[in-house]
Amino acid sequence: MNVRRSPRPSRRLISTAAVAGTTVLGLTVLSACGSSAADGKNSDGKLDVVASFYPMQYLAEQIGGDHVAVTNLTEPGQEPHDLEVSAKQRGQLEEADVAVYLKGLQPSVDEAISQSGIGAKVDAATLTELEKHGSEVGGHADEHDHDHGGEEGTDPHIWLDPVKYAEVAEGVGKALEKADPDHAAEYKKNTATLVEKLDGLNKKYEAGLKSTDSKVFITTHAAFGYLAERYGLTEEAISGLDPESEPSAARVKDLQKMAKADGVTTVFYETLVSDRTAKTLAGDTGLKTAVLDPIEGITEKSQGDDYIAVMESNLAALQKALGTK
Asked: Model's pTM, two decimal places?
């Protein structure tokens, strides 16, 4: 039985004023006092920044450059959603000048940062507009949505949309400027350079996914909702927003039908989560498997050594699976 889809809703446009407003909102978490956090720099004279997981680390390092020392709370290869902040890491937070995190992704981090005395708490979720995505994104809503984020069904995977990630980068840049005004000009310059790179990445995705044989792709969990919406695709997720959730038998049966109806060739799995479910579904339907990396961490298995490289690898994987014209 063919599965019919309702027309894909038009993408909500975010005005420049709205972006500026969210940036200001995100920066309200900074210390209200006028003293500079730079006064508390480490022994190397650098600003101590704690990042919650890799996408936040990447922003801090790219923007901060030589003037920051960045500590990542999530070890390479560790699934960020499962992180439990240790006593040692809580101590690192207390000594840091700035914390950059994404509220709603890692509950243990949210709690630790809220209880810390750190002056500059930069929540990436306040620097762009978050949306609600479920097991299928870009087409009709699915009944298998999962609670994952600050609000029910809110999708935290904003870094997989280069446009939203650039908005977050601008907010992080402003936060570092405020925390360390002595190097504000360099932070501003580095932010502009990074935003330009992300704009270039966005253009590559627009051109690379404009004409494909199929617009539907299957993933192990719904991490690519923003990416799918940005580039006119539909993500079908075996599980919902929670990577550890198990799909129902009905969901698997629906995916088998959808794969046939939509010309799906590939089931994507990710580097930090077991590929067992993806391979089972692929085997039952005669499909291929391949990696589509949500870039929650960089490991030896990553198809690139940084965010940009892995995103370019993801684009190539999508083009191959969807069939570029």
From this structure: 0.81
